[in-house]
Amino acid sequence: MPAKPKVKDVDWMEHLPEAAAEYLKGHRLDEVECVVSDLPGIARGKAVPASKFARQSQFFLPNSIYFQTITGGWGEAAGEGGFTEPDMVLKPDMSTACAAPWTGDWTLQVIHDAFDQAGEPIAFAPRNVLKRVVDLYRKEGWEPVVAPEMEFFLVARNINPAEEIAPMMGRSGRPAAARQAYSMSAVDEFGPVIDDIYDFAEDMGFEIDGITQEGGAGQLEINLRHGDPVKLADEIFYFKRLIREAALRHDCFATFMAKPIEGEPGSAMHIHHSVVDTKTGANIFTGARGAETDAFYHFIAGLQNHMPSVIALIAPYVNSYRRYVKDHAAPINLEWGRDNRTTGIRVPVSDAASRRVENRLAGMDCNPYLGIAASLACGYLGLKQRKRPTKEFKGDAYQGEGEIPRDLFSALELLRNAKEIHKVLHPDFTRVYDIVKTAEYDEFLQVISPWEREHLLTNV
User: What is the pLDDT of residues 379-388, one digit of tens each?
Assistant: First the structure.
């Protein structure tokens, strides 16, 4: 039997990212996980021995993984000529290679890009959707920059779906308490989990900008440094798995549901945006004397005018719409304001060079590639169409009218009719996404909820 390959024996290992190389230093690589994101954001792929990965430049998976629902069902995928489930060609992006430090051996993860057999990118692969939008910016001489915020809950283990989700037991032996936003003592309650999150992130080469306690019971927020949209989406894709693994080590679950606990705030993926001029390196939202530019207002108008059409991407499940409730730290409309967290579109306090626009509508349950792509697509259309936003909203935006679809069915209808969005994201993507989400919604309608049994069983 041939010996396992040593790090120095395999050429591609000489070009690993610094963090991955440091993780393997002095060790032999055992396995490589070759992964892609499906539409819900679940990692799909293959785990292969390191020796096999070193010999192959690509591998194959059926394109049907992009027609799979969150429950493991399938959308009606038949197209012209019927559905034959052809293989895709998956090619590694070695810049994404990083450790899988929770495994029992020395393992790397590598994100792959999906192509058809003619070499064209698969239009409905989420990473390709985001790359397409970023390329549209670059063709205009713009470089989009994003900074995402990730909110999630640490909850008690829940193995019976009929039971309500409960906060995890803290270090003190008491369940995590709500209404403790920014409390350092509350963060300390989850110290062992957070320590593992930091350790895993360091092994994987990710920089955490900060961890805070949010308003919900057991709810935390992680902020990431601003940067390239695809790179940040890769990190969130990896982070979701990292955080889940850290939680499991301490007998609890991490959940990214938009609204996991009744009466508690939901979990968002706020996205901060700025756009840089490729030639000058200057923020196009700021003029020569530090003033707000037309582009700044056009970007906001793009979010206002087109966000309803992509709500189905940033609020992708029936549970997502439970988050858009008045006075529960989530927006109910598309008003914009400066330093105003009640609006859907917020302009944070910053110096002129760092001027940015925050989209507060996206839920943490969205696929990070698709959530960022959808938000950038709206901003891109705004920059191209050069419209002005509504007047800045001052005061409590919860007193305004709701402008967000209240359910997934309505959101899908808006997406279905949004031809300008189809062109930006790709018509094949929006077609497949509609197929999968419609199948999920139809499946949800087959389930009778406790509310229906309690209030309708004997009363109607």
Answer: 999 999 999 9
Domain harbouring 24, CATH code: 3.10.20.70
Report residue 73 as tokens: 């069902």
For 38-141, list the strands marked E by DSSP: 43-49, 59-62, 87-92, 98-99, 107-115
- Please tell me the predicted confidence (pLDDT) of residue 142: 98
Helix 294-314 / helix 408-416 crossing angle, nearest 10 deg: 120
For the chain, the 3-state helix, strand and coil shares in percent, each to the nearest 5, are 40, 20, 40
Residues 396/428, Cβ–Cβ less than 8 Å:
no
Three-state DSSP class for residue 325: coil
Instruction: Give the three-state DSSP class for 3.
Output: coil
Report the alpha-carbon distance of residue 254 to residue 362 in Å, rounded.
19
Please indicate, yes or no, if residue 212 is contained in any of the structural domains. yes
Same domain for 22 and 96?
A: yes
Report whether pLDDT(4) > 80. no
Task: Flag whether 77 is in a domain.
Answer: no
Token couple for 408: 């997934």
Number of helices (H) and strands (E), helices first, in the chain? 12, 14
Shared domain for 251 and 277, answered yes or no, is yes
pLDDT above 70 covers a percentage of the chain that reads 92
Query: DSSP character for 359?
Result: E
- Give residue-wise pLDDT tens across range 239-263: 999 999 999 999 899 999 999 998 8
Q: Residue 398: is it exposed, middle or buried by C-beta count within 10 angstroms (0-12/13-18/19+)?
A: middle
For residue 378, the number of C-alpha atoms closer than 13 Å in the C-beta half-sphere is 31
pLDDT digits over 119-151, tens only? 999 999 999 999 999 999 999 999 999 999 999
pTM greater than 0.90 (yes/no): yes
Q: What is the Cα Rg of the chain in Å?
A: 22
Backbone angles phi, psi at 212, to 5 degrees: -130, 155
Q: The domain that contains 423 carries what CATH number?
A: 3.30.590.10
The predicted-structure confidence for 361-381, as pLDDT tens digits, reads as follows 999 999 999 999 999 999 999
pLDDT at 153: 92
Q: Are residues 154 and 257 in the same domain?
A: yes
**In angstroms, rounded to a whole number, what is the distance separating the alpha carbons of residues 162 and 448?**
12
Domain match, 356 and 268 both:
yes
Domain of 112 in residue numbering reads as: 15-66+87-123
**Number of domains observed in the structure of the chain:** 2
Tokens of 267: 């979990």
Q: What is the DSSP string of 143-186?
A: EEEEEEEEEEEEEE----TTSPP-BPB-TTSSBPPSS-TT-HHH
